[in-house]
Specification:
single chain, about 160 residues, mainly alpha, about 0% strand, flat
Length: about 160
């Protein structure tokens, strides 16, 4: 009887692990996807991004940052706005802050890597590609996008 009980316990443990696996694999930086519903400036900044109004987006995200300085997604999208304004130092500052807040933030790793390429820093880009390889246990878009950007950059040299 004890052998049967052991098999049942082992089966239940395997089932529990399988059931929890999707939770463990969830994106850690998507814990607060509703900032746009709570912060009007953030929501307006996202609309400005859609319109490619980079200066307007940066201004709105700066205002949101006053209230949400420790929000990794906000830091990432603020960096994206500055990158599109070709203000690379500010873009890098905000991407680094996003990664400091959430070391597994895939979008920030991709965007900072692409920004490093824009500034001629292939080593910096490859460092974030390596980080994405560790983060994305299964292939993810951010990893694929940065790999393509690096290949394109290397093809131009």
């Amino acid at each position: 009887m004890s052998r049967l009980a052991g098999l049942i316990r082992a089966s239940l443990l395997c089932a529990a692990i399988a059931a929890l696996a999707p939770i463990a694999a969830a994106d850690p930086y998507e814990a607060d996807p509703d900032l746009a519903t709570r912060d009007d400036d953030y929501a307006a900044g996202k609309r400005a991004i859609e319109q490619k109004d980079w200066a307007g987006a940066a201004r709105l995200f700066q205002r949101s940052e006053v209230r949400n300085p420790d929000h990794a997604d906000l830091q990432n999208i603020l960096g994206f706005s500055y990158r599109n304004l070709k203000q690379y130092d500010l873009a890098l500052k905000h991407y680094k802050r996003a990664i400091e807040l959430d070391p597994r933030h895939r979008g920030a790793h991709e965007y900072i890597g692409e920004t490093y390429l824009m500034t001629g820093d292939l080593v910096g880009a490859e460092r974030h590609l390596a980080a994405l390889k560790g983060i994305c246990l299964l292939p993810c878009e951010e990893l694929k996008d940065l790999e393509r950007a690096i290949a394109k950059y290397q093809g131009k040299k």
